[in-house]
Amino acid sequence: MTPAPLPDADSRPVTPGFPPPVRPLKFYAVVPDADWVARMVAAGADTVQLRNKTLSGDALRQEVRRAVAAAAGSGSQLFINDYWRLALEEGAYGVHLGQEDLDAADLHALCEAGIRLGISTHSDAELARALAVQPSYVACGAIFPTTTKTMPTAPQGLDNLRRYVAQAGNTPTVAIGGIDLHNAADVLATGVSSLAVVRAVTEAADPAAVVKAFQALWPE
């Protein structure tokens, strides 16, 4: 997929910047429904994303509402994937957008609401485009081959990730795509801020134990 051009300064003013995460993102679980959000919150995951691709209408709103309620008052930072209007209306902590969502989303409304914003990137150009809106974090991937979703680009690998981390500067970076406990330490060694996983928790026999095992990779 060819990334859309950088926002034109005359037609789309850059936002004044989104607030940073309240806490380090660290272990980031991407899960399909509110029940999984609740499980990850109970396990103490640092960050959780609701990424639901099956529901719509009122059922989707109720799922977002349940997820927001599950994370409320906890130490887990919850991001809603794609559905930025619902995230705003339901008082979500954060929203995560893909490159294709940047032109459609009302970034100024999100910024004014104080919501945190994460943006997916898959190349140097997409990373530059994301950094232009001063998000709360940028996600870089897929680092390794993944079967979770069809990716628009080849796996990025660790060398590219190191470059993306340097390019992002002080903006937190999240690595995603094919990450598990066997390669997680090598990914963290690039200097990336956070590790995001899907199947490593959703297909685990003991998801809570996986959360703790990942979190042990960060120094106290």
UniProtKB/TrEMBL annotation:
2-[(2R,5Z)-2-carboxy-4-methylthiazol-5(2H)-ylidene]ethyl phosphate binds at T146, T147, T148, G178. Keywords: Magnesium, Metal-binding, Thiamine biosynthesis, Transferase. GO terms for biological process: thiamine biosynthetic process; thiamine diphosphate biosynthetic process. Mg(2+) binds at D82, D101. It comes from the Bacteria. GO terms for molecular function: magnesium ion binding; thiamine-phosphate diphosphorylase activity. InterPro entries: Aldolase_TIM, ThiamineP_synth_sf, ThiamineP_synth_TenI, TMP_synthase. Gene3D superfamilies: Aldolase class I. Its EC number is 2.5.1.3. Residues 34-201 form the Thiamine phosphate synthase/TenI domain. Condenses 4-methyl-5-(beta-hydroxyethyl)thiazole monophosphate (THZ-P) and 2-methyl-4-amino-5-hydroxymethyl pyrimidine pyrophosphate (HMP-PP) to form thiamine monophosphate (TMP). HAMAP family: TMP_synthase (MF_00097). This is Thiamine-phosphate synthase. The gene is thiE.
